[in-house]
Amino acid sequence: MLRLQARHFDMISNLPDAVKDEILMKLPTIDADAARSKVTMILLQLMLNHEGPVLKFTLSIPGFESCSIIDNLILFLSRNNIEDFTLQMWEDHYSLPASIFKCQLLRHLQLEGCSVSNTRELKGFSRLTTLVLIDIIISDEALRSLISESPLLESLELRMTHNLDIYIDAPNLRKFSFEGFARLMSLQLMPLVASVSIKLDHIGTEPCKECSLTQFFQTMPAIEYLYLDYGMIKKFYMKEPKLCTTLVHLQYLDLNLMSFDEMEFQFTLCLLRSFPNLKSVEIEIKFFFLLFTGLRRT
């Protein structure tokens, strides 16, 4: 566990909170360059003075497209048994160094506002159980390899801001959450997954006649909770009133629909008929229009 010790007496830390707040309000605004210099000095002091393993590290700072001090930090962490690493970058996408893949003791990894360009040295993490990727620039193949080569992965959260072909091959997965853009979503067998949430901003405007709802659910036989929104629902071409497979473990269904049109209505009925042990159903409709046809005036 990381423990930092001050070398000099800190008068500020011992003051009452009200006094500290008053001091902070009177301080001048720190510009971006000064903030970066301060971050650099803190990280440099950490790497020079700390002895022993660093099991958990979280860094949330304004984005740097490239920054040698963060590159060195990641290399430092890879040599100090890091198991839980969170890196949140704002504004620019920071280009991850190849040394990130040397952190093979990682169990939890969260990356936000980063880009993965070192695809030649890309590999998964042998001990990773939780992976969170938010606003990451990465190729289809790199993402696919990262997931499939992390064999112990149990929880996967993706929030993508650009179109990708999404391939999920993670047989040990228990929880899968996706939000954002995707051209294609292909799920391989996830026999242990219990929770699936898919919020799709765009996957094409027309239904896919080759997409099978039955095949989709056959990849998740143990699912207990399901969230789908209209982006994913529109992808399926409804041909059968009921699935060819019955999901007996599914208890909680959450649907976010657009207008409850004929396709969404048939989709909902199909699911309700196929989940015999439902305990809770929540349906949110963004735009609801009641259309009455064939009514006679009296």
TrEMBL record:
Q: What is this protein called?
A: F-box/LRR-repeat protein 15/At3g58940/PEG3-like LRR domain-containing protein
- Which SUPFAM superfamilies does this UniProt record tie to the protein? RNI-like (SSF52047)
Q: Where is the F-box/LRR-repeat protein 15/At3g58940/PEG3-like LRR domain?
A: 74-281
Among InterPro entries, the record links this protein to: LRR_dom_sf, LRR_FXL15/At3g58940/PEG3-like
Where does the source fall among the domains of life? Eukaryota
Q: Which PANTHER family match?
A: F-BOX DOMAIN-CONTAINING PROTEIN, F-BOX PROTEIN-LIKE
